[in-house]
Each structure stands twice: as structure tokens, then as C-alpha cells.
Amino acid sequence: MPDQTLVEPTPLGYGRLFAVHEFRAVFAAHALSLLGLVVSELALSVLVYDLTGSPLLSALTFALGFLPYLAGGTLLAGVADRFPARRVLVVCDLVCAGCVALMVLPGAHIAVLLALRCAVAVVSPVFQGTRMATLTDILGDGDLFVLGRSLLRIVSQSALLAGYGLGGLLLVVVSPRQALLITVGTFCASATLLRFGTRRRPARAGGGSTLMKDSLKGARQVLADRRVRVLLLLFWLPPMFTVVPEALAAPYADDLGAGSTGLGLLMCALPVGTIAGELYAGARLRPAARERITLPLVCCTLLPYAGYALHPGLAVSLLLLLVSGAGSAYTLGLDQWFVRAVPDELRGRAMTLLTAGLMTIQGVGMALAGVVAEFAGVTGTVAGAGILGTVCCVLLAAEARRTEGRDGADRHMTGR
């Protein structure tokens, strides 16, 4: 059970999270493993290009970070509930470290490198889903959990801003294989922090069937609940449209004649807006206020993209992206509703499925953006994503409103 003295309904900002010893360990481990992942993605893509001279294979190393998420999150989700969480987290980190260590071996064939990249991506949703479920054990399932999730997301967004730049500077000093060795170290350090910085807790559920059957059964149970299903869609659908300007940033910067500087600004605007929105909502709004603004924000967050229909210049485009990113603060309220709606014994599988679906659908959104832009152009595609995405969000928000009151009450998933 979480320490009840830590479950405080009045928001005091993110600082109180660091009063919880276990959260400090989880936070530091998250930062280290994220750093390792960013460096490994960049170093591996450079290594693949050096070995093959193929831009396609180099780009494929990035795509393989998305594609296996669905398989891992669906077929291995049962791991998150049927084994003690600390053991799952440590083993996942060590598996990732082992895969990256094998990439360093001289003479490794390109197919082996890509297969190892896939293995890391398969493990990632299990790790992230288990960690998310563990946060409810450490912080409770109230406001502290919401702030903890938000802070980990902010770190992830910050890594998008700084990680690839720092990784690029690192590769000026060391070779790609040496950079991969640094990644091995960060994964091992993360495993150490989680092993000795968090408590051992029992598994959430037993293992009465095979892992794959247990995972698929859990996914069916999660998706069978109307309330949980609409919350999952609210997590998944907006990001599918949100990534469209990011996917098309390079051709749009070229259309504007903005050069590499403009491209960098376009890539940074959305994460900056997201960080600002989450920080404000987490630090300044009460839990009840964050829940009240969830549905209005989710209905409005993609509307700024419609402004691309006017073919704005760089400054206005950046403003539209910043405003849209700030609307992502709706996720704080969704986090609270989701953890309230899912039974404890399904929590690990539900959160693994959430993570896998989120990563997969962003990859799908990027691919579709490229296809549509071939026919509709960049500005037409972004504006269309804003309009269509807003319609989808409004429909989902209406369904979420109809299912209100089922959080914590409707337990037909588990027969209660």
C-alpha cells in the first residue's frame, strides 16, 4: 500500500514528488534509460549508414523503434502483472543492455543489428507499462500519480529537444560503437537504481495460463470495458494527428525557405508547447480543475492545425504548434480517469497496452501524413489533420461524457 501520508489532494507542485524515495529512483532510472535509448537510436542509424551507405536502411533503424511495439505490448503484456514489478523492470533493462552490447561486436551483420533493434523495441512497452503501473504503488492512484506521470512525460519531451543534439555532439568525439557502449552503461545504471531504489512487491495476478494467452485475455478484458476503451482512444487518436506537422516539417521548412534553422524550430515548437502546458496544469491547477478541462482541451488541441490552410509563414506556424502543444495538458486528467477505471489486477496489462498503442499509432500517423501529402500538399495535409482530428476528438469526448460515473464502479471486466 502507498504511504497514505503522501496522498495529498491539494496540489503543491512537482517538488513534493521528490520527497518519495522510490520515485527519485524511478525518475533517475527513467532519465538514464531515455538518454541511453536516444543515443543508441542515433548511433545505430549512423553505424548502419556507415556500413551500408543506404539512407533507407538508416531510416529503417528509426522506424523499427515504432513497429514492434504493438507485438510486444499485446503478446507480452501479461508479464507486467504475473511477475513482481521490480523484477520485470530490472530484467527489461538488462535485456536492452545485452542487445545493445551485441550491437557493439565488430563484424555484426546489418540484419543482426536491425533484429537487435527490434528486440529492444519489443521489450520497451512491457518496461514502460510496468513502470506506469508501479507508479500507482509508489505514489497512490490520486494526484501524486498524475504528477509523477506528467513529470516523466516532460522528461521525455525534453529529451526530444536536447537528446539528439547532444548525441550528435557525442558522435563527433567518439565512434558509433563507442557511443553504443555508453548506452549499455546507462541501461545497467537504470537497472541498478530500480533494483536497489524500489521495494519488492508481489505480482498483481497469478499465471494460470501461458504468457501469450494471459496477455491476449488481459487485452480483451481491458478493451471490453466501454469506459476504458474510450479512454484508450482518447490517449491514442489525438497523437496520431498531432505528429503530422512533425512528420512533414522538413518539406514545409523547404517550402518556406526557412533552411535548417527553421526546420529545427518547427521540430521544437510542439514539444516546447507540450512541456509548458503540462507544467502549468500540474503546478498551478487543482486535480478537480484538471479533470474539468480535460474534454474541452482534447476537443481544441488540434484546432490550431487548421490555420495551416492559410499557408502561414514561419512565425505564425510556430505559434500554432506552440498553442496545440499546450493543449496536451488534457493528458493529466486522462491519467486520473484511466487509473481509476482499471482494476488493480489488470493495471499492468492495461498500461502496457496503452503504451504499445500510443507508439504504434504515432508511427501510423507519420506514415499516413507522408502518403496524403503526396496528393494534398503539406499545408493541406496538416490542416486536414486538424479538422478531421478535431471531429474525432469531439466524438470521443461525447462518448467519454456518456460513460462518466463508471470509474471505479463498473467492474464487469473482472466479474465484480
Describe this protein's structure.
This protein has 416 residues and is mostly helical. The protein has 2 domains: 15-197, MFS general substrate transporter like domains (Growth Hormone, Chain: A), CATH 1.20.1250; 218-406, Growth Hormone, Chain: A, CATH 1.20.1250. It contains 19 helices and no strands. Helix 15 (294-300) packs across helix 17 (330-341). The two termini are 21 Å apart.
Architecture of the largest domain in CATH?
Up-down Bundle
Order of helices and strands: HHHHHHHHHHHHHHHHHHH
What would the average pLDDT be, to the nearest integer? Answer: 85
How many DSSP E strands?
0
Instruction: Supply the number of structural domains.
Output: 2
Strand coverage percent: under 5%
What is the CATH class name of the largest domain? Mainly Alpha
Helix content: over 70%
CATH superfamily of the largest domain: MFS general substrate transporter like domains
Q: So what's the overall shape?
A: globular
What is the chains' assembly state? single chain
**Largest sheet: number of strands, sense, barrel closure:** none
Please, how many helices?
A: 19
CATH fold descriptor of the largest domain: Growth Hormone, Chain: A
Compute the gyration radius: what is it? Answer: 21 Å
> Given the helix and strand composition, which structural class is it?
mainly alpha
